[in-house]
Specification:
alpha+beta; globular; about 160 residues; six-stranded antiparallel beta sheet
Length: about 160
């Protein structure tokens, strides 16, 4: 039984459940007058939602939206819409973030692809080993599995 399917039975047994309990088992809670998910979201979560909303937008080198993106243009655009400022290139963005370990990564963190000490690509971590990114010429913004271990993670401050 999935966690979502267990929510009603958990609530029936407990009588009531806190929002944290429901979230812990993967459910959702609707409370009249409460902040929507978007309003309660962190800038990183908002940026992730913005990037996902650009699914299918074509890659264009040097583009930073709203209809075409290169990799760092997508991250720049997404975080700007979430109220955070980032520099233009992937390498500059890496230098502006708080560097974190793979074990501490979370959805909304930036994923930097590198060769040696040179950063050449960036995307937004979506969880479960996947990123939203604008890959290369001829492709579109998409959700994709991280394909290499040569990545660093950064959290936008």
């Amino acid at each position: 039984m999935s966690a979502l399917n267990r929510v009603p039975s958990l609530m029936a047994r407990a009588g009531t459940a806190s929002a944290l309990t429901i979230a812990a088992v993967g459910g959702s809670l609707v409370v009249p007058g409460a902040a929507s998910d978007a309003e309660a979201a962190t800038p990183a979560t908002k940026a992730l939602q913005v990037a996902a909303s650009k699914k299918g937008s074509p890659y264009k080198w040097g583009a930073a939206g709203p209809h075409r993106f290169d990799c760092s243009g997508l991250t720049l655009y997404s975080f700007k819409k979430a109220g955070k400022s980032l520099p233009r290139t992937a390498a500059q963005q890496y230098n502006k973030t708080r560097h974190i370990s793979v074990g501490n990564r979370k959805a909304g963190d930036l994923v930097f692809f590198h060769s040696g000490s040179s950063v050449y690509h960036v995307g937004i971590y979506a969880g479960k080993g996947k990123i939203w990114h604008s890959p290369k010429s001829g492709e579109v913004v998409k959700l994709q599995k991280i394909w290499t271990k040569s990545v660093w993670y950064g959290r936008v401050k």
